[in-house]
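Continuing the batch. This is chain 6 of the set; chains 1 through 5 are on the previous pages. Same settings as before, nothing changed between runs. Recording input and output for traceability.
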Amino acid sequence: MNPEDLKKLVTVTMPYGKYKGRIIADLPGHYLNWFAREGFPSGHLGQLLALMHELDHNGLKHLLDPLRE
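Output for chain 6:
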């Protein structure tokens, strides 16, 4: 994991789907769980979604609060 990825979680938005335009850190847990079951997209977006899933699953979303602008 690149530390810059944590900052991207609170700045990058979902480019498609039901939650298009929502910041990745604000995606609901059930949506992240769906990706975990069905497979994360390839590339950097998939890496960010997988990281967010891990943070959400382990109850660590609050660690992103200081990074929000």
